[in-house]
Amino acid sequence: MIEPRIVRAFTVFAVLFGVIAMIMAMNPIAGARAESVYTVRDIAVDSSAASSADARAIALAQGQRAAFDRLLRRLVLSDDLVLLPNFEDGMIAQVVDGYIIDKERLSSTRYRAVLIVDFNKGRVRKLLRQRRIRFAETISKDVLVVPVYDDGAGDVLWQELGDWRTAWLSRPAIEGLVPFILPLGDVMDMGAVSVAEALAPVREPLLALAERYGSEEVVVVAASLQLPAAELEEPAPSDLTAELDVADGVSQEAGNAAEQAAPAGDLPTARHVRGPVEGAILQLTVHRIGVAGEQTVRELLRGSPGESKADLLGRAVGRVVAQVEGSWKQANMLRFGRENKLRIIVPLTGLSDWVEMRRRLSELAVVVTVDLAALSRDQAEVLLHYLGETEQLMLGLEQSDLALVFQARGWVLQTENTGATQQQGGKNL
């Protein structure tokens, strides 16, 4: 039974909460937009027709379709992308909440613009669930990429604009659930991690480097470009590529299998590669170091006919990104058939704390509802309904700088001190 003191406090806080909620609803901040995983930016459209009005209608429909395709690639597990039907324009329009038009230019027969499209979370979820398509929504914290490159002259880590670093800088704008950042490569970075420490990899200096950029996970991506000796018989393509399936959940065993399929010792001594790279072999070694542990995956890519070195390295970047994002989606896949609940305590210093914490909890992809059980001056008792297991809930909380700690009074929600405010500005990819 709730104590009368708590009941009175709850009543006062409830009234104040209602007043604040009403004020916030009546006075939204001008120009502020609630960016979410269901917002797709920078959709360029260009269409021509008999009139500007027809061209505009065609361009907007094409833009919504392009944005929806990009959203699906962001959310859906790569294994399930082939299961997606060809959605009609009318169905896509039904899941669009709205859009913003930027850089609009039109003539009597042509329409050009850049769109920001907002999709309705509930409708998209329903659409995918009806078709039994697996997907994830949780956005990861920044992952620091440390590129090491060897084109025949030896491993190089800190460089001005080497081929491998340039390939990462040239990567298209952030589209997925995992944002990647690149170190500046300044004097402090050079002193923090050596080439040998990156390749080993040595956990402590790499995590210290990540902390400098407000990250808790590092991906060391070592690329070595080699050409087979002219006198050697060309191996079968399957032996050269040892292409791993970097779809969701690549395993360490898969990486070892690739090494056995085409061991590095079978390759001749590396030499500097210039110009086209047909027949060249790019050996990728991806070390992931973070709070959850370490993982190493290796893969070999073969240069295709007519492919330039820049194109091959760009393809390698895409493989690494698919591997990291695939593992992330697999770990954060929404499991709608497994709904659980957990009673937690949220420490408070005032009503504004509760308003902010409720917002942050409600925005978590795995959280279904946030039910307030009791409210006092210094804490709130909350019943969380969430999808999946407790480990997945904790992983989602970590991405919002929150943590669940078990104490004598039960599960307590705490704000983590991640050091994100000390970030010194890495290069976003």
Q: Topology of this protein?
A:
Layout lengths: L3 H23 L12 E10 L3 H24 L13 H6 L1 E11 L3 E10 L1 H10 L12 E8 L12 H7 L10 E3 L4 H6 L2 H5 L3 H10 L4 E10 L10 H5 L10 H10 L19 E10 L2 E10 L6 H23 L7 E9 L3 H12 L4 E9 L3 E9 L2 H10 L2 E6 L2 E6 L11 E2 L1
Parallel strand pairs: 4-5, 4-6, 9-13
Antiparallel strand pairs: 1-3, 2-3, 5-14, 6-7, 7-8, 9-11, 10-11, 12-13
Low-confidence stretches: 1-34, 230-273, 417-425
Structural class: alpha+beta
Helices, by number, come to 13
- What value does the average pLDDT take? 79
Whole-number count of domains: 3
Largest sheet: 6 strands, mixed
Structural account:
With 429 residues, the protein is α+β, with helices and mostly antiparallel strands. It has 3 domains: 39-130, Roll (Endonuclease I-creI); 143-331, no CATH class; 339-420, 2-Layer Sandwich (Alpha-Beta Plaits), CATH 3.30.70. The chain contains 13 helices and 14 strands. Strand 2 and strand 3 (110-119) form a beta hairpin. Helix 5 packs across helix 11. The chain starts with a helix and ends with a strand. The relative contact order is 0.12. Mean pLDDT is 79; it is low at 1-34, 230-273 and 417-425.
